[in-house]
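Budget justification, computational time. The allocation requested in the original proposal was used primarily to generate structure tokens for proteins on the priority list. As evidence of use, we reproduce two of the resulting records. The first is shown immediately below.
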Amino acid sequence: MDKFNDLHTMSTKGFKSAIDGLMQTACNTAFTLSVEQIIAFIKQVIECICAELLANGKSPVVSSEEAYAIAEEIYLDEEDGELSEDIEFINDKDALTSIFDNLNTILTVKDYKRDSKMIVDQLMSDERFAYTFLYGYSQIPGRSIARLRSRIKNMIRKSYHIELSDETISTVIYEHLWDEGEFTPLKSYNYKSTFFQWLSTVASHAVMKYLEENGFIKVNRERTPGNVRIIWNDKKPECCQMMLDEMIHIPRVHAFLTALYVDRKSQEEIQKELDLDEKDYKLTKRASEKSLKVALLSTENCYEDFLADKGARKLMVSSEFLTLIGKTNANEISDSPLREVLGVSEDDANFEAKVEEFLYDFSNKLFTKELDKTVWQGRFIKGFTPKDMAEMLGKTRGWVDCKFNRTNTRFKEAAIAWWNKMTKTPL
């Protein structure tokens, strides 16, 4: 990604060419870009788009400064200057393409907020529109997610060699947005970015979670400065001082963090003491905390307890499976297949997560048709009601009941056969 460093020296035409080339040649198998590279790309894209508009006798709908402020609010965490924890790109190419599309809309579409509100309102109030928007194939902007869905599909194929159907991707997104009728994700959209930029992030999150929970991929959860936060309020000042003295050796960084963590001074006090304006304070805080995170993550001493992960996901599982193959029996049979296959007992903290993983793996192999898989997993594992499934899939309640009864009968037969084979004891 050294190409980032050369863009600022180019003409407007060269900018456009270099940006296009960077987007085309970017890594499509992993996300590797640093915060600094993301910021550099944002500035360069804004400059390029603004220059191109002016060259064609047009004006951007917001200034370059406003566009950058919007982008900074979208992509950066105000607290630590790392990428926002709400942003998760599949790979570098996805990141650059998404950022470019979003900035282009912000700078060129005058009423994108109005258009976004219309889409959100319709999704929450009109089931027919929601189904057409999420499952349709219209290429007209605002009519469907066809282009977004295709991009996610291609990224997943290139990154993980996994082929997802259009219907699967749409269903995953639909289930996430619908959220058992509460539309919680939609309500969290703040109109600071374009709706399709926001949806791109949300949809990527949902699809990646689907791939992980269904056992298609294993996600590396190695701790990085971007996915941890610093804990210091519950630490004694003298302990913080000892930690900083050992970890931080740059005088200005040490002075800033001492004022913040040891002396527990306010922002106003620190600005006055170190002669910083508000912007410099934020930049210094970001850089200083990043330096501390890097030092703490690399240390082998006890100071690692100053860090905590930014979040964790809770897994749930239907109790029907445990009833079917005998959770009680698992306590009584010393060589229980559950204990052997899942590697945990029912009293283990990871038991439900392991069962859920097993269920997804078992049903993915059992059901070859995507709709069979979607209905059974939705009803059995996720606990959706028949009405929920009917609304999500655009089917009747009777159709869902019939489909689930048939697939569940197949599952029970297969599960019992598996149990009998593993235990040599008829269930």
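The second record produced under the same allocation is shown here.
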Amino acid sequence: MIILRKIKAGALQFVLFVGAIIAVLLMSFLLLTYTHQHFEKKTDVLIEVLRSADYGMAASLMDDFPIGVSHSLDRESDIPITINVKREFWGVFEKRTVLTSHKSTNYSKTALIGGKDDEELPALYVNDHQRPVILVGNAKITGTAFLPEKGLKRGNISGNSYNRSQLLYGRSMKSNSILPNLYPELENHVNRLANKSYVPKGEYLNELPTEGIQNSFEAETLVYKDRVIQLKNIVLTGNIIIIADYKIIVEPSARLKDVLLIAPEIVIQNGVNGAFQAIATESIQVGKNCNLEYPTALLVNKKYAVAAVEQEGQSQFNQTSSIYLDSNTNVNGMVMVLDEAKTRQYIPELKIETNTIVNGEVYCTKNVELKGTVNGMVSTDGFIALENGSVYQNHINNGTINSENLSNAYTGILLASRERNKKVMKWLY
């Protein structure tokens, strides 16, 4: 016998409510699963884009391509990613920017590029002009030295004799009559910078704001130009060029990072701290107690001053050093003097005072007077010592050179011999 019962109408509402909750939970689960998979895929894409940027930078260093032209690279990947690399110069350093993209996902990295030796960095390279290098006092050379055929000898200046047991603390190699060549593209670029007709590309500023400037290397270069520029109480960071017709003065209250200074004469006053490039055509004077961080570059290129000096017959004894590093100063990077003059010189084109340290490289096509310390490498046409009104040719008086004290992470000047061994010097922003 079938018994019929009445069910309250509220039960149907309950069933529908429970069903709706179950449907919402199922939809939420499906949405969560889809979202998780979507973000997982986006994460995988982003990781591959980032990896491709690192790959693009590393792979591009193995090959050179035209300056200013975007160069594409291929990389095997499950995800099709476009890799483009662009080469430029920032001062004396090469600058490379790699851009990777997949659909709407883009990523870029920019770095300063320098060169490294295939083997250990030598301590010294002196051109062979059929005369020895004379060591005096506490002078010391540690590391591999490329020397003239007549090698090293002991010397004496005003009763101060060489007082060490060895002349060289390292290997001796034979040098040639000319210095190792700069990377040709670098040489062409620094010659353009030295030309008075050089006009930097970028957005020109009418004045420098008192609050300072921070400019990304992915943005357009900011340029400030005047006849004489005095930098004080200002912070300048990044993609900025300061160019003067006559002189740039950097006071200790200025904070400069990665900026480019270009002028005939550049004066860095006592107590300046920063990391920047200074490129001059006449002289760079660095005061006492300065600390210039890596990668600093100081360059005097006298290419377009050669003819004028030789025509005027200016007395060599009346000239001052092209680069002068005063006492108790630290320079971490490169110090370079390029001078093509054929006249015989009796003054140092580069003078490094007592208690001053260069951690990096010195490259000078003329004479160096070394009283301080170079932790790294010195490449020069010769040395000179000025003492008590006398000139001592190819003498090192109390100066020291030690390539073993330089960090293995150091990346230096782009020489022609380092063309196939370029490395990232610094990542930019």
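A brief technical remark on that second record: The chain has a mean pLDDT of 90.
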